[in-house]
Amino acid sequence: MTVTGGQPGAGGSGPLAGVRVVELAGIGPGPFAAMLLADLGADVVRVDRPGGGGLAIDPAFDITNRNKRSVIIDLKAPDGADRVLDLVERADILIEGYRPGVAERLGVGPEACHGRNARLVYGRMTGWGQDGPLAQRAGHDIAYIALTGTLGMIGEPDQAPTVPANLVGDYAGGSLYLVVGILAALHHARAGGPGQVVDAAIVDGTSHLSSMIHGMLAAGGWQDRRGSNLLDGGCPFYGTYETADGQYMAVGALEQQFYDEFVRLMDLEETAPARKDIARWGELRDAVAARFKERTREEWTAVFESSDACVAPVLSLREAPAHPHLAARATFVEHGGITQPAPAPRFSCTPTDIRSGPARPGADTADVARDWGVPALDQTTTEGS
Asked: Residue 121: in which H helix or E strand, if any?
């Protein structure tokens, strides 16, 4: 396999250098999963459709398309499927996020792709999965996590569930599980096994994320209602508190030694009720809340800065990159004028980086045609433009 790390936007020096990925353009968890693979060094070619699509923002700011290259192929054109299959023949992985059956109707389903490349890992990203009563239904993150019980866990007991953006469903239960499945299947294929289909459903992944909670529920250690448990805000020493300036501090002083330091620094040692007296948790919460209201977030941050009390300021998205710890680790970097999270995780021998900004639809057709050895890709685009 040819490594094309020298080309802009091509595979880099990360642990997946030399791995080729075809991404059939979509929105949400599919592009994010492909970005993860690209960040790890894979040469990801995004197949965009004519007329664009994706997020309703300028493509120059869609960082889920960083480190990728883009070609435009009309899958509804007579030669569209063949052009994609030419790429598939030279790829290790394909990612698609259509409703079940759509890829097959377009001529790029698993059977057609494996007919051209038997070792291909075919990754399918959906909310409901490839089968089941809801498989053909439209949906978004919030609906998927609602059915799994996960959304119902989050929020205050006397209020509506709190929506956790699209992080729990799309990205944690979706993208991350798709990538884990793809890498496992790729390992299997490279060990001599056949290529296979990875069915990554957000309802499956999000349910799997709650494995520990289901164990606690079965053991009687978790109440099936919001804001009543150790990790859901029900516990007064695991939650958030408002400060004098209207900001917030996050408290996670679960273990006894951390809790002891917490109440000492809060100067509540003599007045706080015993932490194990659940009947007085409301009283403890009120005492902690009142004390936090006495100082600003900045003042409380200084109090806890060098402690093991497990307390941290709640920062905004714009504030986070400037935090001294994140700045020291370069957790956020600037590329192309956009401050964004750096690739993660980190590798001692095969470091990752941001090689290029968001791929512009169709901008890399000539380079991909050359690097992947598919000259017809560029000819078809030119003739149809």
From this structure: strand 121-126
Catalytically active residues are 140, 170
Quote the CA–CA distance of 125 and 130 in Å, as a whole number. 9
DSSP string, 41-65: T-EEEEEEPTT--SSSS-GGG-GGG
- Tens digit of each residue's pLDDT (9 = 90 or more) over 3-54: 333 344 477 789 999 999 999 999 999 999 999 999 999 999 999 999 876 6
Contacts of 310 (CB under 8 A, 6+ apart): 251, 252, 253, 254, 258, 262
- Cβ distance 88 to 120 under 8 Å? yes
The one-character DSSP state at 280 is G
Give the Cα separation of 40 and 61 in Å (integer).
Answer: 20
Q: Whole-angstrom Cα distance, residue 323 to residue 3?
A: 37
Q: Residue written as tokens 């294929």? A: 189
- Kindly report each contact of residues 3-7 with a partner whose C-beta sits within 8 Å and lies 24 or more positions away, as own/partner: 4/43, 4/371, 5/41, 7/367, 7/371
